[in-house]
Design a protein that fits this description.
The chain is built from 24 helices and 20 strands. The protein has 601 residues and is of the alpha/beta class. A hairpin with a 5-residue loop joins strand 3 (159-160) and strand 4. The longest helix is centred in the last third of the chain and has 24 residues, at 448-471.
Length: 601
């Protein structure tokens, strides 16, 4: 990718999201705590450290791999029809600014934070990048688009009923999966063949289910599928065509812990009372230096929240079951551990504890009694059953920030569906919004709400830490995948695209036209011999006659921009434009990863 002149227009969506979240943070602060001019300077760019011109959201999606990962399930690179990278960047900006507020209250001399939409996109593909560049083996190959392949939808997990209703099912239990399909008259062995691709879709962003399963669903009505799901314990939601969320929850909910009641002491198993978080030196490089975080999390949302806090300087300790988190061995491996797991959990010391035992629960109480933050993404009701709810831990440490990251909050009452990414996309309307009109609605198999949910959770934790600095007491903070999905702006109706709004196949890859070229197709026609009256479809087809670089140069000479579409994430480690944005794999057993997405000054 060749460097070019930088676009001066600032990312409006990212700025709007950052401002909204910072207003929500300010509402949680004690009265007067946010008064006066804000000393924190915030800057959001398109490309940041990526040394090439990225003039808009779609250019970022093309260059940084989002089109590639999102399009895996449908046969080729495809844009997300929402400004996802911009929203991620907006949350990152709010996270950085709030972290600076916390750091300044603790004596740090920092006042400026910078991030970019490109850095948001790279963070979002971090797990996929790790898998694509891992030095180990043992897992399925990263899905790649063979030359000349046609677009198809067989890689999606969405099912269609006999009455034409599109549904998404979810379970983390292989027995429940098998029982669901047996109730649809599928042989258990055949149902079992679908389990591995169904579970691996979180890692690979593609779900090649056996056709016999899709056919079985097509023979059933929606009530039939709902009955099978109910009796087998599988969650099922209808995929709506309306992109608007059913409700618009706040990004997170925060409740400061009241002053300790007279005579109320720590839990019987707690070793000490409330700690006083040490203040860092004034010249410390990161705003959360000295903050101690204990997390008991799994999959993506919770570990990513802890990862964000660690990148900001916090010391993060993981609680894992005896023998370790099973996700540690999810292939491909980087050395002796899953590359995807390391992408979210590297640098976190581990303490193993069996939470089903009194000794294990006592370990959690002892750790949280000396911590600043306790973070978990347990299923609803689990914390209370274990005696590790906020009401159990905060009396022993009134300065504790107790953070819970869930799937749906209270959106479904006391019987929510499984709180995973794809069902959150469905319920928030994102499954309809990410695809244009003319394509059936379906969740992206890229884990959009998991990543965004982890970021929103981290922002909630930082808000609670800011409250603690001002009010000298801890808080409960709750966020969810659903609230994260609802944060993404989208039009009232699904967008319509022409062939020029999609990646154009060239002789050696794909190219995505810049905003001016898409808005003025006549300017593109002038570059094509004899194409003055050609339809957009014919114009798109003619791009196959030249290479990506030949077209990019011709468009540049005409004053138009275009971005080569990345279709192999490992190429990021060889592209000089990404040298300051992506860390290459280390020695044997390493993997590539995005650098920290903020610059502080």
């Amino acid at each position: 990718m060749t460097p070019g002149a930088r676009t001066e227009v600032r990312p409006a969506v990212a700025t709007t999201i950052a401002e909204r979240l910072l207003r929500h943070t300010a509402q949680g602060l004690p009265q007067g705590a946010g008064a006066g001019p804000d000393p924190v300077r915030l800057r959001i760019e398109w490309a940041g450290p990526v040394a090439t011109d990225l003039p808009d959201e779609r250019a970022v999606q093309a260059a940084c791999g989002l089109m590639h990962v999102h399009g895996r399930a449908t046969g080729g690179p495809a844009p997300l029809a929402v400004d996802y990278a911009s929203v991620v960047a907006g949350v990152l900006a709010a996270v950085g600014a709030t972290a600076l507020r916390v750091g300044r209250a603790r004596g740090l001399d920092l006042c400026e934070v910078r991030t970019s939409v490109a850095q948001g996109a790279l963070l979002a593909v971090g797990q996929y990048l790790a898998a694509a560049t891992a030095g180990g083996s043992g897992g399925p190959p990263e899905p790649r688009l063979p030359p000349g392949s046609a677009r198809q939808a067989g890689g999606l997990a969405t099912l269609v009923t006999s009455d034409g209703v599109r549904v998404e099912v979810e379970t983390l239990d292989p027995d429940a999966w098998r029982e669901f399909w047996v109730r649809l008259d599928v042989a258990p062995a055949v149902a079992g063949r679908g389990w591995l691709p169904f579970q691996q879709r979180f890692a690979t962003a593609v779900c090649p289910l056996p056709d016999v399963l899709r056919q079985a669903a097509r023979r059933c009505t929606l009530p039939d599928l709902r009955a099978a799901a109910h009796h087998s314990g599988v969650s099922l939601l209808v995929v709506r065509c309306d992109p608007a969320p059913a409700v618009r929850p706040e990004p997170w909910e925060l409740a400061p812990w009241p002053e300790p009641a007279p005579g109320r002491g720590p839990h019987a198993d707690s070793a000490v009372g409330a700690p006083s978080s040490p203040c860092p030196a004034r010249d410390a490089a990161l705003p959360l230096t000295g903050i101690r975080v204990v997390e008991s999390t799994r999959r993506v949302q919770g570990p990513l929240a802890g990862h964000i806090l660690r990148m900001l300087g916090a010391d993060v300790v993981r609680i894992e079951p005896p023998g370790g988190d099973p996700m540690r061995w999810l292939p491909p491996l980087a050395g002796e551990c899953s590359a995807r797991f390391l992408a979210l959990n590297a640098g976190k010391p581990v303490i193993e504890a069996d939470l089903t035992t009194a000794e294990g629960r006592g370990t959690v109480r002892a750790l949280t009694a000396e911590a600043d933050v306790f973070l978990h993404n347990w299923a609803p009701g689990k914390a209370s059953r274990l005696g590790l709810a906020a009401s159990d831990l905060l009396p022993g440490n009134p300065a504790l920030v107790y953070a819970w990251a869930s799937g749906f909050g209270d959106a479904f009452g006391d019987r929510p569906p499984v709180g995973t990414d794809y069902l959150a996309q469905v319920h928030s309307g994102l499954a309809a919004a990410v695809r244009p009109a003319g394509e059936p609605p379906a969740p992206s198999l890229m884990t959009l709400t998991d990543v965004l949910g982890g970021l929103v959770c981290a922002q909630g934790v930082l808000t609670a830490l800011a409250v603690r600095e001002a009010a000298h007491r801890g808080s409960q903070v709750h966020s969810c995948l659903f609230s994260a999905g609802a944060l993404i702006p989208r039009p009232a109706h699904r967008v319509r695209w022409t062939p020029l709004d999609r990646p154009l196949r060239t002789a050696d890859g794909h190219l995505y036209l810049g905003p001016r070229a898409r808005q003025h197709p006549e300017a593109v026609r002038r570059l094509l011999d004899g194409a003055g009256t050609a339809s957009p479809r014919d114009v798109a087809a003619r791009f196959a006659r030249r290479t990506t670089e030949e077209w990019r140069m011709r468009l540049t000479e005409a004053g138009l921009t275009a971005t080569p579409v990345l279709t192999d994430l490992s190429d990021l480690t060889h592209d000089a434009a990404f040298r300051k944005a992506v860390a290459p794999p280390g020695p044997a057993g390493g993997y590539a990863r995005p650098y920290t997405p903020w610059e502080f000054a």
